[in-house]
Amino acid sequence: MGKQAVTVIGLGPMGQAMARTFLANGHPVTVWNRTASRADELVAAGAVRAATVRDALAANELVVLSLTDHDAMYAILEPAADALAGRVLVNLSSDTPERSRAAAAWATGLGARYLTGGVQSSPSGIGKPESATFYSGPEEVLQAHRETLSVLTGTDYVGTDPGLASLYYQLQMDMFWTSMLSYLHALAVADANGISAQEFLPHATATAASIPDFLAFYAPRVDAGNHAGDVDRLAMGVASVEHVLHTAEAAGVDTALPGAVLEVFRRGTAAGRGGDSFSSLFEVMRKGAS
Ligand code: NDP
């Protein structure tokens, strides 16, 4: 039996990588993109260009969406809403959990089956089994199409709630953007002191490599509400972040990021947590914290 045919709607860097990977693995691919020219190379590589969204939906049961956000999905699919019945929509566009739930309800109401996906890879990781995508929605729908979707990345099923894949994705992005911005900030301070990014790289790498041990240490303590100051104390953290901020200030570098970090640390000490671990900031930041 031949490989399952797939429609890919949305040909930004991610959608292009996905369509290319399906083609490379022998899957017949139909593509549609608002800016039609972005399909040219894929068509040259064997994809079929759908003339309209309606044609793209009619071509295959399995339809992968790779769009900027859910607004783009509604802009594209609402005019062809009556063509969604019987389709399996796999929405690999990022958005919030609430909007993923609303999108699932919308598509399901029109007779489609719907999976949310959160891709944890850059386009260059598509087609590599070590990359992974969070999926949520009806498990039987994922099972029915897992073999095909596995061509893109590993499939990490996180539950029936269509918002869950988005939630896990956003949790990762919450960490990713802040960490990467702190990296750029450190590079700016290094640069102001005549140290290049390349020179700093081994040290930055060592710092990043130390993080998993901290995560593993604090996870059970946070779950248990144990913020004992036996290993670190928030008051020490405040002094440390002040040093970071003053070092940036002296270098003439923007202090918005360490300033924001310091503000949260100081809220912790104002809440009487100075003798507790810095992990007590979890309590300061969580919903309903006073
Ligand atoms: P892009 O934003 O570059 O892709 C955008 C796609 O959405 C294009 O096909 C674009 O069409 C289309 N689009 C946007 N707005 C509209 C609209 N109003 N109407 C019609 N089409 C629209 O994103 P990427 O390809 O980089 O990523 C796709 C998704 O994957 C995003 O949700 C992103 O968060 C996620 N992702 C991306 C990663 C990455 O490294 N790139 C990593 C992990 C996840 P047109 O070509 O006509 O502009």
Plain-language structure description:
With 290 residues, this protein is of the alpha/beta class. The protein folds into 2 domains: 6-161, 3-Layer(aba) Sandwich (Rossmann fold), CATH 3.40.50; 193-285, Orthogonal Bundle (N-(1-d-carboxylethyl)-l-norvaline Dehydrogenase, domain 2). It is 51% helix and 12% strand. It contains 11 helices and 8 strands. The protein has helices at 13-24, 40-44, 53-59, 70-77, 97-109, 139-149, 164-192, 197-223, 234-250, 256-270, 281-285; strands at residues 6-9, 29-32, 48-49, 62-65, 88-91, 113-119, 132-136, 154-159. Strands 3-2-1-4-5-6-7-8 form an 8-stranded mixed beta sheet, sandwiched between helices. Helix 9 packs antiparallel against helix 10. The N and C termini lie far apart (61 Å). The model has no long low-confidence stretch (mean pLDDT 96). NADPH dihydro-nicotinamide-adenine-dinucleotide phosphate is lined by residues 10-15, 33-35, 38, 66-68, 72, 75-76, 93-94, 119, 122-123. Keywords: Oxidoreductase.
